[in-house]
């Protein structure tokens, strides 16, 4: 049984088919990368998995259980966490309070939540930033905060949405390190990323999407050599 | 046809006429708020108070200088436009750009403005009911229908009919203005996407001033039209603000034809409800429809408004 | 026990013994009204300031509480026994709130606010029209149970203090974290496992309970209510908001400061001008929103935080020098 399965998932917005007949599997312990040109529907897929949208057609199963149509907070409690591409810090709370808020997912006690939050911020190397207001953080730290918050919910599957966008090379290296650490601690990862170097180097497998449909699946090498993928990114030359 | 049935039909006809005429006026009130909400995404909870200001302007024009309310439209509307621009420019815009812990600062601001306007009127003009006793205030037009051997007599109030007619004209003028003039197009563009409009060179700040001014002028016109048929007192604004946002939601945000439909629906609901269900709960029908529409039809009656 | 707790306990003790020293009924009346508004401000602040759900219709809960006691009294219950109305008033208000919440929480932001206002108006119309139950626009009149104001003072002090303690405890708990998260970003909160609708409802229920209890108290203390008074948008709903934003929304001390100023200003206007206080409050709302959106307590906190940052910055600079 795969950890996450999408079967024939489609999402229509009025007349627009944002995602069409999407089918793929994610095995436990994998890092699966989702790539594709801008507007291909990658974040929509995340929104479908995480419960923000319900699919027009198709099913999504997590650990064998159907989760399509469930609300986001239910999906999170089941062990599936996500970060946001457009970061959503709880601006007027400190970093630690942000992470405590998500830690309360697993406990009712303030002290326990605090402990989990301290752990998660240490794990993502945010100790210095703990008492800063989340709204005042630089972009790199806000993205780190998204990860820390997601981790505090003790997920089995983590959806990372463009965590590397807008980071400078040093921050990119550090974030790769942290993602590998997260993976090493037993979390399965589904990642959307435009930074090719990053996603090629950390993913075990890739799925490439264009105009809402899957056009390739395989190891990074296989997908990179796939003509359709190249066409999708670079456009087809007109004779 | 039996006389009883004829009587029922007569009553229904009367109720429908009242509802439609009233609905036209309500539509004019709602149009202003819908426009403001559509362009600036602000709910103007001082809308009714703006109408009250216009009503007092019309009242004094009549009482001091014998200016007929329909004529004073020509003075009241521009004055209300200026008042609207001033409010938007000096009070609302500064707040729109500031950050705050309360998510609805602008709305609260309009609450404050409404409070000041209503109580200023109370202070200056006292709570006494005022009326504008024009010569045609109780003039009625009779319309007799022959149906199945019985005569159905319907009476239509002349001031209401005139108000309805002028409201229709103003509504049509607004529609043409928005659809065919450059300024109107700029307003629509700002309503659809403020940032994109700004990027296209539209001075969105000026547009917000003008829009609020137009909204105020429209509700001011409604006030002037209402003077011959309503008793005027400082707190008259509140219930009309409520009706305005009911209409705006019914019609879908920023949707002009929708606001017209919303106004008619509200007018009919009140008219039918007050006669066939209960007079005391007249205002409640609008609210109940409002809540039902919010829940079941988040895009408004026409399904074309912007969902939240 | 830390400094703040000692300060608060002393303050409470002083307040408690106050009527033993001062018996002037006018002064006691002012204090009672102040405490009533402290209670109301705190109640609105929980839902509005801390959870970010702005309600323009809280008079609904005040009115329900007032009429719960009013109806009990009207049905012949003795004034002394009518005190049970306090708890009952709070519970009835919470019950109505659960219905209103169930309907309105599907909506967000201003749509939520307006729908609560709409339902509050419907309740007012019910109070006016259902004459058998409520006496309609004539209102309900009865003779207060206690002749001495001191008893009322102690009761409202107890409820207001209870509200403070409860709200403070809530805000320090998981519930409070969830309220703040919902306020900051409801979508992010949901992705973090927070059932936003459920927690918004909890916030509303607590808020409505205390507002209803305040309404019940009002009936018991003043002896007269009618729909226009207790369901009033301007005098109750909006003033609850004013008291909170004046003192500082989303702070624990804010509603207290706001209530004190509100009562002082109201009295001032009542004594010297007989009316016009609403104009002043309208202008005050405008001024607060444009210039001091954080309210008095909020602005003080911001300035202090700013000073701390500047001092830290200066310290770092001098250390680096």
Order of helices and strands of chain C: HHHHHHEHHHHEHHHHH
Largest sheet properties of chain C:
2 strands, antiparallel
Number of helices of chain B: 11
Overall CATH class of chain B: Mainly Alpha
What's the helical proportion of residues of chain B? over 70%
**Structural class, from secondary structure content of chain C?**
mainly alpha
Biggest sheet of chain B: strands, sense, closure? 2 strands, antiparallel
Which percent range fits the helix content of chain C? over 70%
* CATH structural class of chain C: Mainly Alpha
As a percent range, the share of strand residues of chain C is under 5%
Give the class of chain B from helix and strand content and strand pairing.
mainly alpha
> Which term fits the overall shape of chain B?
globular
Lateral arrangement of strands in the main beta sheet of chain C = 1-2
Count the E strands of chain C.
2
Number of domains of chain B: 1
Description:
The complex is a heterotrimer of chains A (239), B (308) and C (321). With 239 residues, chain A is α/β, with parallel strands linked by helices. Chain A has a domain at 79-203: Rossmann fold (3-Layer(aba) Sandwich), CATH 3.40.50.300. In chain A, 37% of the residues lie in helices and 25% in strands. In chain A, strands 6-7-8-3-9-10 form a six-stranded mixed beta sheet, with helices on both faces. In chain A, helix 3 (95-103) packs across helix 4, helix 3 packs parallel to helix 5 (139-152) and helix 4 packs across helix 5 (139-152). Chain A is globular. The mean pLDDT of chain A is 89. Chain B has a single domain (3-296), classed as ABC transporter involved in vitamin B12 uptake, BtuC, CATH 1.10.3470. The mean pLDDT of chain B is 86. Chain B has a two-stranded antiparallel ribbon with strand order 1-2. Chain B has helices at 3-40, 47-65, 69-96, 105-125, 158-180, 182-192, 194-199, 204-226, 237-251, 256-277, 282-296; strands spanning 140-147, 150-157. Chain B is 72% helix and 5% strand. Chain B is mainly α. Chain C has 15 helices and two strands. Chain C is 79% helix and 1% strand. Chain C has helices at residues 3-21, 25-50, 59-74, 84-104, 109-129, 131-134, 149-172, 174-184, 186-191, 196-222, 227-230, 233-247, 254-272, 277-291, 295-320, and strands at residues 140-141, 224-225. Chain C has a single domain, classed as ABC transporter involved in vitamin B12 uptake, BtuC (Orthogonal Bundle), CATH 1.10.3470. Chain C has 321 residues and is mainly α. The mean pLDDT of chain C is 88. Chain A binds chain C through residues 50, 52, 71-74, 76-77, 81-82, 84, 88-93, 97, 100-102, 104-105, 107-110, 113, 149, 153, and chain C through 172-174, 177-178, 180-181, 184-185, 187-196.
């Amino acid at each position: 049984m795969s950890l996450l399965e999408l079967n024939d998932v489609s999402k229509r917005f009025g007349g627009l088919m944002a995602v069409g007949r999407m089918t793929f599997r994610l095995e436990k312990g994998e890092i699966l990368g989702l790539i594709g040109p801008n507007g291909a529907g990658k974040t929509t897929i995340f929104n479908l998995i995480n419960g923000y949208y319900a699919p027009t057609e198709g099913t999504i199963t997590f650990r064998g259980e159907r989760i399509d149509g469930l609300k986001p907070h239910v999906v999170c409690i089941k062990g599936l966490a996500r970060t946001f591409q457009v970061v959503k810090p709880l601006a007027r709370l400190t970093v630690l309070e942000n992470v405590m808020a998500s830690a309360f997912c697993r406990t009712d006690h303030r002290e326990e939540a605090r402990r989990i939050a301290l752990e998660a911020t240490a794990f993502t190397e945010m100790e210095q930033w703990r008492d800063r207001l989340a709204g005042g953080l630089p972009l790199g730290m806000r993205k780190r905060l998204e990860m820390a918050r997601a981790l505090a919910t003790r997920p089995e599957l983590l959806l990372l949405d463009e965590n590397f966008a807008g980071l400078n090379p040093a921050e990119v290296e550090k974030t790769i390190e942290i993602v590998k650490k997260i993976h090493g601690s037993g979390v399965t990862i589904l990642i959307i990323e435009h930074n090719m170097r990053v996603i090629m180097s950390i993913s075990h497998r890739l799925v490439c999407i264009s105009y809402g449909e899957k056009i390739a699946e395989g190891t990074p090498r296989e997908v990179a050599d796939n003509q359709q993928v190249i066409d999708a990114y670079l456009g087809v030359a007109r004779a | 046809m039996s006389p009883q049935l004829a009587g029922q039909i007569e009553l229904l006809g009367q109720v429908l006429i009242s509802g439609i005429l009233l609905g036209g006026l309500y539509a004019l009130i709602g149009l202003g708020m819908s426009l403001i909400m559509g362009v600036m995404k602000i709910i103007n909870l001082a809308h009714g108070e703006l109408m009250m200001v216009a009503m007092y302007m019309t009242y004094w024009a009549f009482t001091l200088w014998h200016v007929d309310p329909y004529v004073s439209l020509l003075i009241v509307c521009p004055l209300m436009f200026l008042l609207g621009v001033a409010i938007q420019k000096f009070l609302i815009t500064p707040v729109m750009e500031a950050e705050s812990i309360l998510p609805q600062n602008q709305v609260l601001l309009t609450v404050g403005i409404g409070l000041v306007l209503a109580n200023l009127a109370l202070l200056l003009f006292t709570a006494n009911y005022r009326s504008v006793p024009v010569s045609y205030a109780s003039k009625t037009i009779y319309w007799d229908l022959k149906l199945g051997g019985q005569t159905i007599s319907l009476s239509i109030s002349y001031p209401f009919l005139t108000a309805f007619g002028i409201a229709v004209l103003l509504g049509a003028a607004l529609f043409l203005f928005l659809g065919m003039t450059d300024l109107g197009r700029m307003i629509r563009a700002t309503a659809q996407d403020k940032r994109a409009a700004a990027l296209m060179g539209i001075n969105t700040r000026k547009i917000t001033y003008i829009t609020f001014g137009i909204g105020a002028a429209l509700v001011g016109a409604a006030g002037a039209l209402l003077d011959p048929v309503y008793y005027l007192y400082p707190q008259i604004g509140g219930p009309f603000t409520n009706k305005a946002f009911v209409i705006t939601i019914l019609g879908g945000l920023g949707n002009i034809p929708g606001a017209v439909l919303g106004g008619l629906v509200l007018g009919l609901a009140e008219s039918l409800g007050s006669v066939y269900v209960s007079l005391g709960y007249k205002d409640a029908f609008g609210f109940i429809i409002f809540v039902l529409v919010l829940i079941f039809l988040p895009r408004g009656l026409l399904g074309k408004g912007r969902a939240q | 026990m830390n400094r703040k707790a000692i300060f608060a306990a002393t303050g409470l003790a002083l307040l408690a013994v106050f009527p033993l020293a001062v018996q002037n009924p006018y002064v006691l009346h002012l204090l009672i009204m102040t405490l009533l508004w402290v209670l109301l401000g705190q109640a609105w602040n929980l839902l509005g300031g801390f959870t970010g759900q702005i309600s323009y219709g809280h008079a609904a809960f005040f009115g329900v509480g007032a009429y719960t006691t009013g109806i009990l009294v009207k049905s012949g219950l003795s004034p002394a026994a009518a005190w049970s109305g306090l708890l009952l008033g709070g519970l009835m208000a919470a019950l109505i709130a659960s219905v209103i919440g169930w309907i309105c929480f599907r909506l967000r932001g201003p749509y939520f606010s307006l729908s609560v206002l709409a339902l509050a108006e419907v309740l007012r119309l019910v109070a006016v029209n259902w004459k058998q139950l409520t006496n309609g626009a004539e209102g309900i009149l009865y003779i207060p149970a206690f002749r001495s104001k001191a008893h009322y003072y102690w009761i409202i002090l107890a409820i207001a203090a209870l509200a403070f303690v409860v709200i403070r405890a809530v805000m320090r708990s998981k519930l409070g974290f969830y309220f703040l998260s919902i306020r900051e970003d409801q979508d992010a909160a949901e992705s973090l496992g927070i059932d936003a609708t459920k927690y918004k409802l909890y916030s509303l229920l607590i808020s409505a309970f205390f507002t209803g209890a305040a309404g019940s108290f009002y009936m018991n203390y003043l002896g007269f209510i009618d729909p226009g008074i207790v369901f009033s948008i301007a005098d109750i709903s909006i003033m609850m908001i004013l008291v909170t934003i004046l003192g500082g929304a989303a702070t624990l001390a804010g509603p207290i400061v706001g209530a004190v100023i509100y009562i002082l200003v109201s009295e001032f206007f009542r004594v010297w001008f007989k009316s016009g206080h609403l104009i002043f409050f309208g202008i005050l709302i405008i001024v607060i929103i444009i210039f001091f959106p954080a309210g008095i307590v909020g602005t003080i906190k911001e300035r202090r935080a700013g000073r701390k940052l500047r001092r830290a910055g200066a310290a770092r600079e001098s250390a680096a020098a």
